Queue: 2 jobs
Job 1
Amino acid sequence: MSATKTTTTAAPRPRPANPFRDNLTMLRRNLLHARRYPSLTLNLLLTPIILLLLFVYVFGDVMSAGITGGPADRADYVAYLVPGILLLTAAMTSMGTAVSVATDMTEGIIARFRTMAISRTSVLIGHVIGSVIQTLMALVLVLGIALAIGFRPDATPVEWIAAAGLLALFSLALTWLMVGVGLVSPNAEGASNLGQPLVMLPFLSSAFVPVDAMPGWFGWFAEYQPFSPAIETLRGLLLGTGIGTTNAVLTVGWSLGLVVLGYLWSKAQFNREPRH
Amino acid sequence: MTTTTQELAIAATGLRKSYGGKTVLDGIDIRVPAGTVFSLLGPNGAGKTTAVNILSTLLSADGGQARIAGHDLVAEAQAVRAAIGVTGQFSAVDGLITGEENMLLMADLHHLSKHEGRRVAGGLLERFDLVEAAKKPAATYSGGMKRRLDIAMTLVGDPRIIFLDEPTTGLDPRSRHNMWQIIRELVTGGVTVFLTTQYLEEADQLADRIGVLNGGKLVAEGSAEELKRLIPGGHVRLRFSDPVAYQSAASALREASRDDEALTLQIPSDGSQRELRAILDWLDAAGVEADELSVHTPDLDDVFFALTGSGPVLAQSARSSQSTEKETAR
């Protein structure tokens, strides 16, 4: 065989890897999506807001009497309920991540990203940071509603910062898990179904009633699953109730553990050979 | 008489891939000199897309080796990715954002400066006639526009090797011709193009070399002319409605193959003016009048029957013979 052309293939232009810039680009893409199509996040936000109003105005008196054994006072119950509702909000909005990742993976542009000389994980990191930002915005909104209906935290600035950090870290953990859920799901419906158990966890926690009120084996599960320690810690930071070392350690441990687990799982799923 | 890998944009040997026991690529060798167009021709399911996906680092091969732009496909995947551009069969645009935002996204991912990115994106949008639609979400684009945006996005990084997987499937004739024009312009600029298609005409129009893929194997490779010489599919068909006329024509025309039920005769022919006149003259001289005369040029069908002599292209055959009829009706 003889070469008919003498053209040599030009060496690819030197283009140093720049994962930071790639992450930023992908974050911008996801924020653009969220800004154009906010309905997904807004829909998911409705659940915690409705539950907040329902539990305060419909069940509030009964719940507060039941929990404290004292007189019925829904103002007490607002204080008890809000930390749990905030973490429920984080769980619900993280569900949006699973759905949007699953949808995104069915798009041809993901195949294009895979054939480009970019940082591969930037596709996922863009989703994660974008989602955490959306979750934090949702949390501010829900907190605003809570304040409007009588939630009166007594946190110091340092406690506020710690509370914000806790929420951000916990959201990060939930989001990474949901990215993995989105990646293993064939479509949006699948992601929504598969993510459901995680979203149910706040209902099986100390969000609405103390774990002491639950039957033994179930109470044990409720006490140690990720949400209860996080709720108790947040409650302590915002309202000055006792946190306890166990809860603080469990919260940080669960969050960091789930971040690492979610990250490794998602990365492995994304790097897996695309289905034919 | 040697070609060094330096001069080959794509050099693959023994590529194999199977999915769950089904062999999709059964050891194919591909060599594409830089600056040329190579077309992989084959029916649906022949393995064309799998070949593109492997060569563009999207899939890993089960066996074989390949160097793209001089870089090993596996060991230097990122260097390969930096040299190539891929436009897949299904549009690789982000439908939720506008055409312009898609272009700027590519510019950012290629680490262009903001100014440079705007310049390149604007230039390509203009070149591909997308300026008017630039501010609309890509999901609202027509098939042809999406395909143009897709290619424009591929070009942002100024790739030296471009993979196009069935770039004209599903496009109307005008968009198809536009796409051919675009591909020709790329080649003029020195880009190497690896193209897959189901259409012989497309390969004929664009490719320097054509590889015919069937059942995961390259069953033939050569220039369009070389391949056509392998295909004895060209013929003239005479259709009769009068059985008597059919019989007398059939008995006189020994070389024709007969279809007694449809009352048609097929005469091997290259369809040239000279041969057609000879047939017409003969019909006149014999006093036979056919109800219809049609010229059939070799098509993908014929290539496959000629090259493989096997049946897996039957479904394809029904469809493309229809299109042949249409062409002759003009």
Job 2
Amino acid sequence: MIDNSILRNEEKAIFALRELYGKYGYKPFKMSKFEEYEFYIQNKDFLVSDRIIAFNDTNGKLLALKPDVTLSIIKNGEDIDGFKQKVCYNENVYRVSENTHQFKEIMQTGVECIGDINLYDIYEMIVMAAESLSLISDDFVLEISHLGLLSSLLDNICKNSSFKNEAIKYISDKNAHDLARICDENDVAENDKNALQKFVSIYGERNNVLQELETLDEYVNKDNMNILKTLSYMLDNLSCSGKIKFDFSAVSDMNYYNGIVFKGYINGLSQSVLTGGQYDNLLYKMGRKSGAIGFAIYLDLLEDLPNEKAGYDVDVLLLCDDKTENAVLINTVNDIINNGKTVSVQTADTGKIRYKELKNIKGGV
Amino acid sequence: MLNVALPKGRLGEKVYAMFEAAGYECPSIKENNRKLIFENEERGVRYFWVKPSDVAIYVERGAADIGVAGKDILLEYAPDVYELLDLNLGKCRMAVAAPNEFHDDEQKTLKVATKFTNIAANYYASLGREIDIIKLNGSIEIAPILKLSDVIVDIVETGTTLKENNLEVKSEIVPISARLIANKSSFKFKGDDIEKIVESIKKQVQAND
């Protein structure tokens, strides 16, 4: 039996999350470490970065270390009426870090549901996302947005695509002042400009957001609004319902995502640890008829969470020397371990090991 | 405790005055010493002075919950932060400048000297113009005089330095001013405090307009 206390945060999360996804019928999906390079080149619009680690296989074929998991899962699936492929995974992906501009190995855990997606599937995915976050920390926020609602609102105000792209960027930054500036530059009517400004300021508790959105009813698509209302109602019964909010600044790449998208934050971590949503566009581009929804958790970020065991490396630092009899040393080590403590056998206290208790059996017979 | 990264210098002092007026005073910050971190436990606020170009990094990485950074820095480094308010301080513009007699020969690659390589690259990409970027760290104005570049992309405040070096603004790229930014995760968990500050400072900005 593995003692949970020796596991790092990300290791604990892997076990707990796999158990959680199994409860909802999501089967682990093990994939190969490499994909054909050509596959990513064909689908590079859907990758976070187009920089990929490529190498030649022994037969000369150009392969790549996976920069993304979802693409590989979709590639291997098929569309069957009435069937939803439900998988979970725990894989490393290789991407260029935005900070260091060098390749980085990122440990990712996630789930994907591919098939004829309905509102229950969206609800189930959001529940699993919220439960995933609560397994990592009680202090979390999951924010939900609807890209269709955002897109139709902007289409109602200005059809110019460069305006739309800039507006989306400013909405994701909660930047009302630059949003107002580009409205003026693009001769957007005062009423429309005010509606956009208002839209940026709407976020937080779900019912409040829905009420505020009602005041923008001439701009907001009714079908999308109804999806948000029904979803919010379905989520009301969850014990963590108050931590699930609406925030339209949670904008994800619109090449990849459509419909409901969401991001999860944990107090103490500086960026979102969970990203997900509906990605029907990706399946359509790959010639599939199905819809899809999923999310990924970036486990490497959990390193920054405080660890209860920080402060020392072992319970006992046991010092011995050449004169210590082996039998005495072995018995002492076994006694310490049998008492539920950890021990490091050394010949000197060099300051490299942090310990609670020092035991010296030098010269011991 | 709310952590606030302020840009060292005159702009930072003006910004602190706004926080003070918003009810988040920290008298020890006015003491004449070389300390960089100041805390008022009662008000639940901790200020620290950092290099202006580093504010966005402190905020993006969560070492600071909020901070004040120039729009030039935000455009150049594109940190993943919320940009909550235009403080209307430190107003200037990002512009293309060149010698007064400069004529753009569109058949040739344009040589652009700048500290702001991303802003310059994005601007000329939007025009579909082929450029050669020359990254400089200071005294940008002498680049076209010494024929190192055809034009420069730089911050222009009054235009005096340009004038004294026989340069003039050829086109404006974007207006620049100081912006109040927030870490996205901090905003989820300390949103009430941050919004209170934003509302109070917003009123001060509107009153100054």
